[in-house]
Write a structure and sequence with these properties.
The complex is a heterodimer. Chain A contains nine helices and 17 strands. Chain A is α+β, with helices and mostly antiparallel strands. In chain A, strand 10 (160-163) and strand 11 (170-171) form a beta hairpin. In chain A, helix 4 (141-149) packs parallel to helix 5. Chain B has one domain. Chain B is built from three helices and six strands. The longest helix of chain B is centred in the last third of the chain and has 17 residues, at 70-86. In chain B, 26% of the residues are buried. The chains are: A alpha+beta, B alpha+beta. Chains A and B meet through helix 7 and helix 8 of A and strand 2 and strand 3 of B.
């Protein structure tokens, strides 16, 4: 199997600048075109384990990151993201190219992959059972997810829980974990061997760096997982670790609030989410100490 | 509401619902909304799924399933019917 790491740097750049790099992340193939060095650097660093499809094969999304024309090409250069030639967002400084690619790929999936019920949530798995962590930005979701995957949990996704309606399982789409601001140093301190991209400052989300997904998670991207826990994390400085059960009906609406396409899916979305809620224990989880958080998740996993 | 007034489920409602811990979530086939309902509302809807029923018969369903003060039964029944009608889940049958 051809992977990004099996391409030489020159081959990688040639594909990116030419026909595109057809990158497989779980069930999704994205053909990426970009002549920008930051993009090639970050893909080489973070996507080495990922399969690469042939130059003429099918891709779900054809995306590009290019410098817009005009004087800005020379003065404070910018980058713009395109999907099938359409430019949906305002350009950003060129240094933001890789975060923009990650955000753009998330946007492609969350606005188009309606074969799945999609929830804005991190998903990690151990022993065949998955924990879904839905949360708004600032809740500590990605920090918790990064810590868990560095303590043996498999990463299914940092951003997108994809429920397959016909059987209710979670389909992995493992990509780098987006860390912001203080959580970058928290994870550096917590996982000394973690591979992180160069932090990019002054983005719309502050300073952003991406954590490489574990090799095992990428290798097992075809293995679905059964939803077992829904945990709404909330980081609060100094807070004692606390796990509080949530009644199922309340959990249903809170998960639906974090869905990208619950309404779009109609009755099928209702049935899919109801089955997930029925099969899961749901909790609010408040934490400030990652070691305590890891111990609590380990206890959850040990419980029958 | 007149005791003899007959009610039915709105045509098109299939009553996809789940009931957990005294609360019920229900998918509204006509609006695409999802509602959080109490046990009384779902009991009334299930009765109407079997067949259209008068307000008196629906009050009897509530009385049989829940410990409702008889003095409050009519008001409770009317309130539930109005709420469910407002959500396009039930409607009075034209005479």
């Amino acid at each position: 199997m051809l992977t990004v790491a099996s391409l030489s740097r020159r081959q990688l750049e040639t594909r990116l600048a030419g026909p595109g790099l057809a990158l497989q992340t779980g069930p999704i193939v994205s053909r990426i075109r970009s002549p920008i060095r930051h993009v090639a650097d970050a893909i080489a660093l973070l996507y080495g384990d990922y399969p690469v499809q042939g130059e003429d094969g099918f891709a779900d999304f054809h995306v590009g990151l290019h410098r817009p024309g005009g004087l800005r090409r020379w003065y404070k250069p910018q980058v713009e993201f395109d999907l099938d030639g359409q430019v949906p967002f305002e350009p950003l400084p060129e240094a933001h190219a890789f975060p923009m690619l990650e955000w753009g790929l998330n946007w492609c999936i969350s606005t188009r992959a309606h074969a799945y019920l999609m929830i804005h949530a991190a998903v990690v798995e151990r022993g065949g059972r998955a924990a879904i962590l839905p949360a708004p930005p600032g809740s500590g979701k990605s920090t918790l997810c990064a810590a868990l995957v560095n303590r043996g949990w498999r990463l299914l996704s940092d951003e997108l829980a994809l429920f397959r309606p016909r059987d209710g399982v979670l389909v992995p789409v493992p990509r780098p974990v987006s860390l912001k601001n203080r959580s970058i140093d928290v994870i550096r301190g917590y996982a000394a061997d973690a591979v992180l991209s160069t932090p990019v400052s002054n983005t719309t989300k502050g300073t952003v760096a991406h954590l490489k997904a574990p090799t095992d998670s990428v290798a097992r991207a075809h293995e679905t997982a059964r939803p077992a826990w829904i945990v709404f994390p909330k980081y609060e400085a100094g807070a004692a670790t606390a796990l509080t059960p949530i009644p199922r009906a309340r959990a249903f609406f809170r998960v639906a609030d974090n869905a990208f396409n619950y309404s779009h899916m109609g009755a099928r979305g209702f049935a899919t989410l109801a089955a997930a809620i029925e099969g899961c224990a749901s909790y609010d989880f408040r934490y400030s100490d990652l070691d305590e958080a890891m111990a609590l998740f380990a206890a959850l996993e040990r419980a029958p | 509401m007149a005791p003899s007034e007959t009610w039915r489920l709105r045509p098109g409602q299939t009553l996809q619902y789940r009931q957990w811990d005294g609360e019920c979530i229900l998918y509204n086939d006509l609006s695409g909304d999802t509602h959080l309902l109490g046990d009384g509302a779902i009991a009334m809807l299930l009765a109407l799924r079997r067949a259209p029923a008068t307000r008196t018969a629906l009050a009897a369903v509530l009385q049989a399933e829940f410990d409702i003060d008889p003095a409050a039964l009519d008001l409770e029944t009317d309130t539930l019917l109005r709420d469910l009608q407002h959500l396009n889940l039930v409607e009075p049958l034209a005479c």
